[in-house]
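seq as requested:
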Amino acid sequence: MLEYAFNTNPRVVNLPTGLPTVALVTQGASTANQITFTRRVTNPEVTYIVETSGDLQNWDPAGATQVLPADPGNGVTQSVVFRDNTPRDASHPKRFIRVRVTRP
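struct tokens:
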């Protein structure tokens, strides 16, 4: 399902191409996790949920915000960027971000 969701070929070893990428980004005085991934735009069979966590056990599906407009893509896929709403600091030294793919 992930191969389909991220528009990669299941018959070709293409790691890490096509998988979500995570980076630490600094904006002003704060640093936060940011995730970039390619999603399908023409298929309602897949739902993408960006989640954040401070402990890898409790995940918040409303913990990230899309920070850049989605690129126009190729009509089948588009690249999107989400950033954790909670910056990494002394009170939140560990932060995690992921994309969960489900079927509606």
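The radius of gyration is 14 Å.
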